Amino acid sequence: MDTQDAKNLTEQAGRSDVVRTGARIGHAANGLLHLIVAYLIAQLALGSSQEDTDQSGALSLLGQSALGAVLLWVVIAGLVLLAVWQITEAVTLSKTSKRISAAGKAVVYLVIAGVAFFIAIGSSTSSGTEEEATGTALSMPGGQFLVAIAAIVILAIGGYHIYSGATAKFLEDLDKNPPASLTAAGRIGYIAKGIALLATGSLFGFAAWQHDAEEAGGLADGIEKLRELPFGTIILLAIAVGFAAYGIYSFAKAKYAKV
Questions:
Q1: CA separation, residue 141 to residues 113, 130, 144, 210 (Å)
Q2: pLDDT at position 127, please?
Q3: Per the CB 3.0–4.6 Å rule, which of 32, 189, 201, 230 could disulfide with 154?
Q4: Helical residues (DSSP H) of the chain, grouped into ranges
């Protein structure tokens, strides 16, 4: 089988009803996770959160009830199929930037699906993963540079989310534009998520600058740092509204996305 044959098979897989339907379920699952994250951020703002304010915390909370445990497996299936669809996009798209973006999204969806799988089978997730990974990186030759690059990448992704929200560029991923209210939800959601990612990237930047893994952290840590700012409670509640808006938009994306 030559490269063109492999590309044709990948394109056929991306067009299959199973993958396309699964991708839409994956977008809806992503929306559900963001709604739960929004709830957890609001709880953190009010001082009563017991879970990490990220997808891992949302998945843990989801798995605490019988119905949630069933939904967890639906989330896993949807995210895996959404990742498969993104992989087909990474192989078949002609524009390099879009191929890289699709590949990156596929990795993210597979990682979240993996976390969900371990939660579903009863394995707990470690809370210090980011610090441990950063500590390992910093101990390697050139590790400080690698962590700095990670910080720049996260900051760039956060900045792009804000740009995408401000310009409504995210609508390019849709077959047709949703109602104005859902477009507004997308704008708010992308900007809020971008701000949270900027906070996360800043943590990695401080870790690289000070050569201290304890300064690093994931999305949950970045969001918690926002609470320490002046008017932190108000900022977190605004971010919670933003994540809820992103979740609502993700449900719209399940209907309107190009798949």
A1: 32, 19, 8, 16
A2: 46
A3: 201
A4: 3-15, 17-45, 55-62, 66-92, 96-120, 129-139, 143-167, 180-210, 219-227, 232-256
Cα dihedral angle (15, 16, 20, 25), rounded to 10 degrees?
-170
Return the DSSP state at 259: -
Q: Which two tokens stand for residue 89?
A: 């996009």
- Residue 21 backbone dihedrals phi, psi, to 5 degrees: -65, -40
Angle between the 66-92 and 3-15 helix axes, to the nearest 10 degrees?
140
Q: What is the residue-wise DSSP string for 183-230?
A: HHHHHHHHHHHHHHHHHHHHHHHHHHHHT-GGG---HHHHHHHHHTST
Q: For the segment 24-59, what is each residue's pLDDT rounded down to a tens digit?
A: 999 999 999 999 989 888 888 887 666 666 777 788
**pLDDT of 179-228, one tens digit each?**
899 999 999 999 999 998 898 888 888 777 776 655 556 677 778 778 88
Mention every residue, 6+ apart, whose C-beta is less than 8 A from residue 165: 186, 187, 188, 189, 190, 191, 192, 194
pLDDT score of 66? 80
pTM of the full structure: 0.81
Token output for 203: 């943590």
Partnered with residue 257 across adjacent β-strands are 174
